[in-house]
From TrEMBL:
Record-linked Pfam families: RNase_T (PF00929)
Residue ranges of every copy of the Exonuclease domain listed in the record: 84-243
Family indicated by similarity: Belongs to the REXO4 family.
InterPro entries: REX4_DEDDh_dom, REXO1/3/4-like, Ribonucl_H, RNaseH-like_sf, RNaseH_sf
SMART domains (alphabetical): EXOIII
Compositional bias segments (type: Basic residues): 250-262
The name this protein goes by in its record: RNA exonuclease 4
A GO term from the CC aspect: nucleus
Hydrolase among keywords: yes
């Protein structure tokens, strides 16, 4: 039997048939509860609205969920602006018949200082079969007041445009967002060569433990925590990382010019 689910169709909320026992069960569970805003609770006592770069005090009735190592992954400044580099992390839920297809359930963006500039739960276009709560931390109630996918996609695209995008296995995050980002502006901790072990990619939790001394992803994942970990890892190796990017850029440019010269046909002078 499929798990409780919630989704949208055509970008608008799709009301499930009244005979659907899963929907009826979900409504019954949530009956009488106070509605939750779509932004997730932050560890620094604030909440971020969907307007990027703005901050709002956390309501008293919203409980805090402390991060695993707050002292290590705490923001290093009060600056909530959109900086030159932003780190992104997404949490996915399962859609399709068996729930084995990933869809965006939550996305978080943090700036250079680790402050959250955008954090939203997302209502997938397809019906949610598996919330993957043990990993994603997402529950049915989180998606009841979630933003529509198209709205979130647009906000994220506007935020990361022209900026360096930091993250771990970013191709997965960009895939569920149906977005792309220039390779030259991407800093992926899963792909950076010095972080590989015997040519193999490593998990973000292993890199965070080794480089930052932070324990993350002990139980449910937190997209804010993971984005901060990726950003702080990048910041710690920024100088060497940027040098390698510049070196690669120069090599590619030189190789491209050399190939272009070889491919150009020789022009013979015209007879006078």
């Amino acid at each position: 039997m499929a798990k409780e689910g919630y989704g949208t169709a055509g970008g608008k909320a799709a009301a499930a048939p009244a005979c659907n026992p899963n929907w009826a069960s979900l409504q019954e569970k949530l009956k009488g509860r106070k509605p939750l805003v779509s932004s997730a609770s932050l560890d620094n006592g604030t909440r971020v609205t969907s307007a990027l770069g703005k901050r709002k005090e956390r309501p008293d009735n919203v409980p805090e969920a402390p991060l695993s190592t707050p002292s290590i992954l705490a923001p290093t400044s009060e600056d909530f602006s959109l900086t030159e580099a932003l780190a992104m992390d997404c949490e996915m839920v399962g859609v399709s018949f068996q729930g084995n297809k990933s869809a965006l359930g939550r996305v978080s963006l943090v700036n250079t200082w680790g402050n959250v500039v955008y954090d939203e739960f997302v209502r997938p276009i397809e019906y949610v079969v598996d919330f993957r709560t043990k990993i994603s931390g997402i529950r049915p109630r989180n998606l009841m007041k979630a933003k529509e996918f198209s709205t979130v996609q647009k906000k994220v695209a506007e935020a990361i445009k022209g900026r360096i995008l930091v993250g771990h296995a970013l191709h997965n995050d960009l895939k569920v967002l149906l977005l792309s980002h220039p390779r030259k502006d991407t800093r992926d901790t899963a792909e950076y060569q010095p972080f590989l072990r015997e040519g193999r990619k490593r998990a973000l939790r292993d890199l965070a433990a080794e480089i930052l001394g932070a324990k993350i992803q002990q139980k449910e994942h937190c997209s804010i925590e993971d984005a901060r970990a990726a950003m702080f890892i990048y910041q710690k190796h920024k100088r060497e990382w940027e040098k390698s990017i510049m070196k690669q850029f120069r090599f590619n440019k030189k190789h491209k010019n050399k190939h272009r010269k070889k491919s150009m046909p020789e022009q013979t002078p015209k007879a006078s």
